Amino acid sequence: MKKISMLLMLLLASVFILAACSGGSTESSGESNGESSGASSSGESSNSEETIKLRVGSGVTQEHFSYQSFFNAWMERVEEETNVEFELHLGGSLISMGQGFEALNDGLVDVVMPLYPLYDTQRFPLSEVSMLPVVDTTVNAASKAYADIVFGNVDIVDGKNYQELEFGDRDLKLWPAPTTEAYSMSFANGQPTSMDDISGLSMRTPGRVLEIFSREIGVNPVSLPATEAYDALSRGAIDGIYFSISDWSSYGLDELFDYTIRGANLGYFSHIFGMTQQTWDSLPADVQDVMERVTHELIMSDQTYQTFRDLEEKDLTANAEVGGVVEHISDQPQDIQDDVSSAMVNTWLEWIRINEENGVPGREIAKIWRDLIIEYGGDVPQEIHNLE
Q1: Which residue range is the domain that position 282 belongs to?
Q2: Digit-coded pLDDT (tens) for 218-256
Q3: In 3D, which of 66, 265, 64, 65 has the Cα closest to residue 183?
Q4: What predicted TM-score, i.e. pTM, was given to this entire model?
């Protein structure tokens, strides 16, 4: 009997010990209030430690200036301040340049960095306003001016802002990223000494605005993705290229140019990035807040643009080592200065005319771009000051 009593006592003791142990481990972070965590939180704040994984797709690599100056820092900040983890598929491994919108709609990736609306001006005609030529302007000023437009801080026509006019029915959540540095003219076959040397050349152009400019100065525009520029220059298929100096090394171009004319700021290639509205709505509110805040802070940060200066210095040094020469537009023969200056003005006017004829408010957004560039410390050709 004593043995049976002792056995019962041991069994009861074991039950109490097990119950006590299990009572300290059943509560997990994010489950105590009965709410789910992660991307299914539908905009509600969540302190859950459950990781939200977002797939990032891009046609460029992390060596691209947009990642070195902005996207790497953006992702690092978001990961540090939230429970988001980014899974990177870069360098065209999942999506090619210019295919970002389709990749989002097809659910191939969650975020595209960057998106290139300038590669599809039929669908996104207003986006190329940043390519209108300006003078005495920095990438800081151009990026902040473009950010104001993308953030929707200004109405363009009929009370609608840029995103409503350009992307209104596409259910996307979009942010601005820094533009490139100003585009310069680079030549692979020696220094032009007059407009006769430039007229008739074939130059790679990134879009419609520089196609207009090219025709104004007698150049044959060749539309090519940046990824094909190295091969085209190496084979002699084109004579030169319009490109930003700080982006040369991203494509191996720093070793190919004999001569570059800078100072005639032939546009700032603009980028955006983002996700579908459905993905955005699925994120907790605290994650959304961090993404919004970090975007604004990095766009306004001087450190973001110091990266451009560092990259430009590096590329100029590399180009000089292979005999390349870079000179300002003010150092060019007078006929080059005059023709380039006239072409810059005519490019604005022709771009406005084409858009207005197509029912796009080109004049209104051009004036907004002009005013924002001046507001942020840049300038435009004198004739454009008087544009009404």
Answers
A1: 50-121+155-180+269-303
A2: 999 999 888 899 999 999 999 999 999 999 998 999 999
A3: 265
A4: 0.84
